[in-house]
Write a structure and sequence with these properties.
Radius of gyration: 13 Å
Number of domains: 1
Number of helices: 5
Order of helices and strands: HEHEHEHHE
Low-confidence stretches: none
Largest sheet: 4 strands, mixed
Shape: globular
CATH architecture: 2-Layer Sandwich
CATH superfamily: Beta Polymerase, domain 2
CATH class: Alpha Beta
Length: 111
C-alpha cells in the first residue's frame, strides 16, 4: 500500500493517542512492523508499542482489553491492531537488549 495509507494510519494513531493519553498516562506510542517499514498490505495489522508509567505487571490484563476496545470502537480505519504494553522501566531495560523493543526503536515511528 502507498504512502497515503501509511499517513492515514499515523493520523489514526495520533487520534488514538489523544484519546488514551490522559486516562492511561501514555508516555510513548511506537508504530512498528510492516506499516513502519512501508510494507503494509491489505492483510497487515497495525503493530503498536504503548509505554506508560501507569502500567504495572498486574494492570496489563485489566488495561489491555480497554486499549483494544478504545481502538476498535472508535478507529476510523478498519485494520486489526496488535498492542504491546510496557511500563517505562521495562521499556528502558528491553531497549538495551536484542528484543522487540530494540527492533521497534530501530525500524519504528514514534507517534
Amino acid at each position: 500500500m502507498g504512502k497515503k495509507k501509511i499517513e492515514e494510519i499515523k493520523r489514526e494513531i495520533e487520534r488514538y493517542k489523544r484519546r488514551i493519553k490522559k486516562k492511561f498516562q501514555v508516555d510513548r506510542i511506537i508504530l512498528f512492523g510492516s506499516a513502519a517499514r512501508g510494507e503494509f498490505t491489505k492483510d497487515s495489522d497495525i503493530d503498536l508499542i504503548i509505554v506508560s508509567r501507569k502500567f504495572g505487571r498486574k494492570d496489563v490484563f485489566k488495561i489491555t482489553p480497554q486499549l483494544y476496545d478504545e481502538w476498535h470502537l472508535k478507529a476510523k480505519i478498519d485494520y486489526p491492531v496488535d498492542i504491546l504494553l510496557f511500563n517505562v522501566k521495562e521499556f528502558e531495560r528491553l531497549k538495551k537488549r536484542v528484543s522487540i523493543v530494540s527492533e521497534a526503536l530501530r525500524e519504528g515511528i514514534e507517534i
